[in-house]
TrEMBL record:
Keywords: ATP-binding, Biotin, Ligase, Lipid degradation, Lipid metabolism, Magnesium, Manganese, Metal-binding, Nucleotide-binding. PANTHER family: CARBOXYLASE:PYRUVATE/ACETYL-COA/PROPIONYL-COA CARBOXYLASE, METHYLCROTONOYL-COA CARBOXYLASE SUBUNIT ALPHA, MITOCHONDRIAL-RELATED. One of its GO terms (biological process) is malonyl-CoA biosynthetic process. NCBIfam families: accC, PRK08591.1. Pathway: Metabolic intermediate metabolism; propanoyl-CoA degradation; succinyl-CoA from propanoyl-CoA: step 1/3. This is Biotin carboxylase. Residues 120-317 form the ATP-grasp domain. Residues 1-447 form the Biotin carboxylation domain. It catalyses: propanoyl-CoA + hydrogencarbonate + ATP = (S)-methylmalonyl-CoA + ADP + phosphate + H(+).
Length: 668
């Protein structure tokens, strides 16, 4: 077995690989850029080597630097994780030439499956079902439109070397095809250094279901069930689960056998994933094969009991698979949500910055947290915005969902925006809970984007009850202050008014309690509250009427901002007389910024598409922002005249930085 391996990656996947290597008694080497010198994977590894500046094309994508790091540390093998160089055949070749083992498939398999056009041709020859489309190289926009019309709209434009949702666009007409082809080729060139794009038929009402395969170097291959990955936003997976609530044993067997047949066709060895698109009648079509470890591999590990990273290392060491297909049993249900640094209330725009507070839920047999960050660390603009993968397990799908909802409530992140409210809403969505999902789920359930109105509200009074409880505990603590005048002791009131800072709704509260047990009455309804909460704790963990409750707490002046089940509400709890006087306080309106185009995210201003004095029409392109390697086109919402351009092309912008100012009478 290898004595030392290098992980050519960063973030949560580097930490994940280190954990398995440590379990196997293998020493690890981390590599890091300037931006990652204090990263968690650097702290966890036995050794760490600096490989360059923050941009990945000057560090994590530098093959020579990775090999030099191997030689200087004596690393015998390299695990590439996912992304970066994980599916780069030149990297695998360079490692082979340097006599360093690649913990992944052979170069030929990477070359064959890493190119989406080539892989579809091989799949068709191997008897695997494929989606109709044009697999040749498309030379320009006009040819793309012609091909799209031949295939028939809607079509999907995909970067040949793509992945992670980059370089992908859906087009339903010629105009969308033209814009989609331009954006897809631009993103593909920026992210992968390869601007080739192909076109295929877009299957309506599709599910994205993938098969995990495992093959050794001795001709033995198996599949470890499927993963349902249909909950996607902009082709980026958000929620994954295993098994799929849609697939029956017969379909699973057929998909699995085709996946293994494809792996054998390219002499595949290592862990790999064959992705399929499945229609409502369980017809399935090959999409692509990922010749690496998938982001969502933990759900397969939880339902099979197998460590995929460990198997990858063993196979790279020329060991034989000791599992037969009949040995693979799917037990229970696993659910994964990707926790991203993005703002779901601002169209999921990326969020960067320092993790001022970071408290993940406690790990257990039913909760797993794969992360590469820690409290005080930073989410950089240079890399993927993933904070962690939260994975839960249960005997049934309902159990796994319930565990996920509880774990999301306990996930305390401050300093950046994150998507926990959104994934909490998905978990509470009745359609999701029924398993009636497709890749269109998010677009159909949230057609106007995500807002606070989309959040579940099972019991609106629950947060009011907690606010009253917290205030009572603080008031009781304050009443115990020493040095009081003996004949004028401080007393704690039993009647309060909780005023919502969001909609100014007032709730009359009566509270009575002893030790940790309280009765909180709101109107004619009483709630029993029991908790060991201590003043200063970021989480209220307890029971309300016997049901477990976890609420996140932020102190806001003399009030609280409470979060649970994705919902956030602010409260000030005050004496009735103070509440009456509060109504008389004047309201200060925020400044009017409607005549400015503000940067909705931190990012690079790639292009300014208008000039001063120009009249723009609704829907007209104003500028293009790049963040996390994704191009975002900002368009005019209404007719307007450009008064001044405040930001130059190439500028690095912060959130709400002014880009364009419009004449006040006509605002874009």
């Amino acid at each position: 077995m290898f004595k030392k391996i290098l992980i050519a990656n960063r973030g949560e996947i580097a930490c994940r690989v280190i954990k398995s290597a440590r379990k196997m008694g293998i020493a690890t080497v981390a590599v890091y850029s300037d931006a990652d010198k204090n990263a968690l994977h650097v702290q966890m590894a036995d050794e760490a080597v600096h490989i360059g500046p923050a941009p990945s094309n000057q560090s994590y994508l530098m093959i020579d630097k990775i090999i030099d790091a191997c030689k200087s540390t004596g690393a015998e093998a390299v695990h590439p994780g996912y992304g970066f160089l994980s599916e780069n055949q030149a990297f695998a070749k360079a490692l082979d030439a340097a006599k360093i083992a690649f913990i992944g498939p052979p170069v030929g398999a990477i070359a064959a499956m890493g190119d989406k056009i080539t892989s579809k041709k091989i799949a068709a020859e191997a008897g695997v079902s494929t989606v109709p489309g044009y697999m040749g190289v498309i030379k320009d926009t006009d040819e793309a439109i012609k091909i799209a019309n031949d295939v028939g709209y809607p079509v999907m434009l995909k970067a040949s070397a793509g992945g992670g949702g980059k370089g992908m666009r859906i087009a339903r007409n010629d105009a969308e095809c033209r814009e989609g082809f331009e954006r897809a080729t631009s993103e593909a060139a920026s992210s992968f250094g390869d601007d080739r794009v192909f076109i295929e038929k877009f299957v309506e009402e599709p599910r994205h279901i993938e098969i995990q395969v495992l093959c050794d170097k001795h001709g033995h291959g198996i599949y470890l069930g499927e993963r349902e990955c249909s909950i996607q936003r902009r082709h980026q997976k958000v929620v994954e689960e295993a098994p799929s609530p849609f697939i029956d044993p017969e379909t699973r067997k057929a998909m699995g056998e085709q996946a293994v047949a494809l792996a054998h066709a390219v002499d595949y060895c290592s862990a790999g994933t064959v992705e399929f698109i499945v229609d409502k009648d369980k017809n399935f079509y090959f999409l692509e094969m990922n010749t690496r470890l998938q982001v969502e591999h933990p759900v397969t590990e939880l339902v099979t009991g197998e460590d995929l990273v460990e198997w990858m290392i063993k196979i790279a060491n020329d060991e034989k698979l000791t599992l037969a297909q009949d040995d693979v049993k799917l037990t229970g249900w696993a659910m994964e949500t990707r926790i991203y640094a993005e703002d779901p209330f601002r169209e999921f725009l990326p969020s960067t910055g320092r993790l001022v507070r970071y408290q993940p839920p406690a790990e257990s047999a039913s909760v797993r947290v794969d992360t590469g960050v820690y409290e005080g660390g930073e989410i950089s603009m240079y890399y993927d915005p993933m904070v962690a993968k939260l994975v839960t397990y249960g005997e049934t799908r309902d159990d796994a969902i319930a565990e996920m909802r509880a774990a999301l409530d306990a996930y305390y992140i401050r300093g950046i925006s994150h998507n926990i409210p959104f994934v909490a809403a998905v978990m509470a969505n009745k359609r999701f809970q029924s398993g009636n999902i497709t890749t269109n789920f998010i677009a159909e359930e949230y057609p106007n984007g995500f807002s606070a109105d989309d959040l579940p509200n099972d019991d609106p009074a629950m947060l009011v009850v907690v606010a009253g409880y917290l205030n009572q505990r603080v008031a009781e603590r304050n009443a115990r202050v020493t040095g009081q005048v003996s004949d004028h002791p401080l007393t704690v009131a039993e009647s309060w008014v909780a005023v919502s800072g969001d909609d100014h709704t007032a709730f009359d509260i009566e509270i009575d309690g002893v030790n940790n047990d309280y009765i909180v009455a709101i109107g004619d309804r009483s709630y029993g509250v029991s908790s060991d909460w201590k003043i200063g704790d970021a989480l209220f963990v307890g029971e309300i009427d016997g049901a477990p409750v976890c609420v996140q707490i932020d102190v806001e002046g003399v009030g609280y901002r409470l979060s649970a089940n994705g919902i956030q509400r602010s409260f000030k709890v005050m004496l009735p007389r103070v509440a009456e006087l509060q109504k008389l306080m004047p309201f200060k309106a925020p400044p009017d910024m409607s005549n400015f185009l503000l940067s909705p995210m931190p990012g690079l201003l790639v292009k300014v598409s208008v000039t001063e004095g120009q009249t723009v029409q609704p829907g007209e392109e104003l500028c293009i922002l790049e963040a996390m390697k994704m191009e975002n086109v900002l368009k005019a919402e209404s007719k307007g005249v450009v008064k001044k351009i405040h930001a130059e092309q190439g500028a690095n912008l912060s959130v709400d930085a002014i880009i364009i100012e419009f004449e006040k009478d006509e605002v874009a």
